[in-house]
Every structure is written in C-alpha cells, then in structure tokens.
Amino acid sequence: MIYLDNAATSWPKPEVVYQAVDECLRAGGNPSRGVNQSALNMSRVIFEARSSVAELFNVKNEEQIVFTKNITESLNLVLKSLLVAGDHVLISPVEHNSVVRPLQYLKETKDVEYDIIPGDQTGYFDTSEIEKMITKNTKLIVISHSSNVLGTILPVEEISQLAKKHNLYILVDAAQTAGVLPIDFEKLDIDFLAFTGHKGLLGPQGTGGLIVKEGISLTPLIHGGTGSKSKETSQLGLFPDDFESGTMNTPGIAGLKEGVRYCIENLEQIRKHEQFLIDKLLNYFKENSQFEFYGPQDANNRTGLVTFNIKDVDSDMVGEVLDNEFQIAVRTGLHCSPLAHNSGNTIDLGGVRVSVGPFTQEQEIDELINALEEISQNM
Fold first, then answer.
1. Phi and psi (nearest 5°) for 255?
2. 298 and 155: one domain?
3. N or C: which end of the chain has fewer CB within 10 A?
C-alpha cells in the first residue's frame, strides 16, 4: 500500500515509537500511583515526554504542558473553561469542527457568540479584518495554524501581536503543524497551543496535549484522582495535575516522547522533504487542466497536503479507484472542516486529499501521478 493520508494520522512511525510503546506495556506500573519501582519508572516516562515537548516548542515551564487524549479534548478544555455567557470569539475561516462544534454548543447553551473572519479562497486573510470585528465582548481569537483541507499556513505571530494589542487571548490549533513547522511558544507569545500526538509528532493515536501560558487559570473537564495530595477531596488547582485525572495513556505517551525526539532531531529535514514532494504534485496539477486543486499555489505557503478534484468526477469515486485498483490510500469527501471547504468553494464537491509524511518516497508520488493519469483518461 502507498499511504498518502498522513494529515489524518501519520504512518509509518519511526521504529523507536513502536519499541517504546511495547516496552512500556511490558514494564507495567501506573505513574504517580505509589513508590514501587514500576510506578516510578512510568512517572519517569511521563516526565521525560513532557520535557521533550517543552524542548520542541520552547516552553520554559514544562508543568504548563497538559497531556490529553487528542487535540479535540485540548480545544474543548480551553473553550469550555475560558468562555462564559456574553463572551465573543473570532475564528479563522478554515477552522476544524473540533473548534466550531464546541463553540456552537456554547452558543446554544451558554450564550457565547462567535464570528468567522472572512478570507480568500485559500483561507488566508488580512489581519486588519480582525480589528474590524473586535467588539467590547471579544475575548478570544482561535487560529488553525494550517488548514487540514487547503494546507494554508496562517500568520500566527502577526495575529498574536494583534491579540496582545487588544488584550485578547489567542488559541492556536497546531494539529497540522506540530512536528512539521518550527513553533516557538515563547516567541509567538500565545496563550494556548493545542497539539495532537498522532500526526506530525509521529506518536500513537490517543495522545495529545495543551500548553497554557503561565498565570492563566482553567477549569478541568474531568475531575478525579491525580496521584498527588490524595487527602484532598477537591482538585488541587495545580498544573498539570488538575487536568490529568485518572490513569494516563502511558504507553501512548512513551511512544509520543520518541516521536517528539525524532522531530526535534529532524524537523528541518522533514519540512524540506514534504515541500519537495508537494511541489512536485502541485506542478503536475498546474500542467494538467482536468485537475483543480485548492489552497496556495506555492508549496512554501502550505503544509504537506494537497486537496484536489478531477473535474466532474466524484471525489469518493476517485478515492475508491485509487484504493481498490492502485492500492493508494488518500482522504476523500469533506474533512471535518466545512468552513475550509466553504473557503475553497468545495463544500458541495468535497475533495481528494493527498498528504505526505517524512517517510513518503518520491517514487510513491510518481506512482500516484501515473494512477491519476489513468483515472482522468478513463472517467
């Protein structure tokens, strides 16, 4: 199989990720539960993983890093804890349903309002548009660092500066950029960075996290045992303990740690490799009028994915043919991001998404192109 669905979940993983998960499962022990050697070893795994994430994102206080089961939980944690009745939120025109649906829930149940910043067909927008939409009740700006449909990289640093100018919080969704683009939490001066473990960070599914700027208080989504100060019957008001109640996904976090280490050592190479492959695919689409692709024309302005359609051909049908006849795995239809599809004018068509990873080979892109040639001629 040629796997070109890395924007959904990366595969394959570095071998050290598989080894770490296996070793953790075989070792036994529950972190922060007791002083036996197995429990202490598992606590060490969590500590080292947190330290690795802090190094990758340049987080000074690693206790501000909370591990979650995925980025959706991280985003929900911020939105449902920070926002109260009457608050107003601005979101980018390419936000994923993991942002839109919690906000819609809060709108319907808590009287929280949100507006979508208008952008062009790539999802890009002028930051001056944000200032026009800020009201006296605006509290938060939510920005997807890069669209999972259009690939567009948004100017987080510029948006963060604007947010600070108006005393607004900023939440960045790094689902498509963590482990692919350099992200400096301190330099960007953002309040919240949400990330998932199983995409660019090359870790297992069921892992993710949230980085919270020091001094910001949040309310946990889940309450329960943390293994610390067990005499207390209330949550402790501590980072990260308050937000990691219950038994953690220690094998997943062990694997995530190794995925993060791999990214730290290879980040620049990963970015260059993915840009090269995407540039090759973009050039093919530009030279063949039967294909329509969405997002920026230049690979430098997008992450490692391209969504396209063969004119007048159903995207699901293209995906089925690629899978069944050519053993090429891609994503088709709508990608849990109707806002991005609206931006790209593909809400009715959907699209075929090709997404590469650090282990995608140039030959695999060549085979995809050959397959698309055959499909486009026969449909």
1. -65, -40
2. no
3. N
